[in-house]
Amino acid sequence: MERQIQWYPGHMAKAKRQLGELLKYLDVILEIRDARIPLASHNSDLDELLERRPKIIILNKVDLAEQNLTKAWQEWFRKQKILSLTVNGQNGQGVNQIWQLLEKELPPIKINRPRRLGVVGIPNVGKSSILNRLLGTGAAKTGNMPGVTRGKQWIRRGNFEVLDLPGLLPPKIQSDEDGLKLALLGAIREELIPTYDLVLLLLERYGARLFGWEQLKVTITSPEDGLEWYARKRGFLSKGGEWDQHRATLALLKEFRDGRLGRISLESPH
User: Mean pLDDT, consecutive 10-residue segments, the chain of 270 residues?
Assistant: First the structure.
């Protein structure tokens, strides 16, 4: 039985209202998504708003996603007639192509002013790292624009003014599957799914892919067995030689999120 995960804090409701007010000043939207979950990392609650302006989808963290699936997603977006790019916000790979695509695809505006770009994305998709790479050291704050941003800063770079918008989650996650993916990648609060339960779900779904137990000829009969195997492999033992469940749980989740267990995508367009 599916449940609806709800957490919509007040600041997100306020940010959505602000986005609606700001759209009339924006010429294009960059929507940042996680390349490992291109659908679950999209806030469908914003569809009606985002359809009012040209949009480019930026698939970030491609270094953590499976390359063949990332290529399949690019082809999927192309068939949907949606502009998309893949980037690595940590090292800057692909970020300069964003400017090139904007210059190529954006229609000219009728008045003599910089084109205005809004950047949106749910929490933890790497929006800040992309913005830092995108704007670089040559960017300059233009200050508040009365009647436009009411306290928000536009950043000027070349022929563009860029506005960073708050991370926005939808008010409800309709599917346990999407909730699990978002929790695994740290996009929603861990209180919603206890860390231990989350790690057991991770091992149940992806443990064999992450650790290659079959190739190692290791017999794992349950997620709990998998966690104990991982703890002993990492040497997470407490006094008396017992395995340290708490330490193993935290370490495994962090290594997964940091990509230290290898590339893995949690969604496929097929």
Answer: 47 68 84 95 83 90 96 96 94 93 80 86 89 74 41 78 78 80 85 86 94 94 96 90 93 94 92
If one looks up domain 5-172 in CATH, what number appears? Answer: 3.40.50.300
Report the alpha-carbon distance of residue 132 to residue 116 in Å, rounded.
Answer: 17
Q: What is the dihedral of CA 47, 148, 28, 125, to 10 degrees?
A: -60
Residue 240 has what pLDDT?
81
In the numeric block, which tokens belong to residue 76? 């999927």
Residue 101 sits at the vertex; the CA angle it makes with 63 and 119, to the nearest 5 degrees, is: 70
- Full 3-state SS string of the chain: CCCCEECCCHHHHHHHHHHHHHHHHCCEEEEEEECCCCCCCCCHHHHHHHCCCCEEEEEECCCCCCHHHHHHHHHHHHHCCCEEEECECCCCECCHHHHHHHHHHCCCCCCCCCEEEEEECCCCCCHHHHHHHHHCCCCEEEECCCCCCCCCCEEEECCEEEEECCCCCCCEECCHHHHHHHHHCCCCCHHHCCHHHHHHHHHHHHHHHHHCHHHHCCCCCCHHHHHHHHHHHHCCECCCCCECHHHHHHHHHHHHHCCCCCCCCCCCCC
**Tokens found for residue 237:** 């033992």
Which residues touch 191 (CB under 8 Å, ≥6 apart)?
none
Which residue intervals of the chain bear CATH 3.40.50.300? 5-172
Strand partners, 162: 117, 155
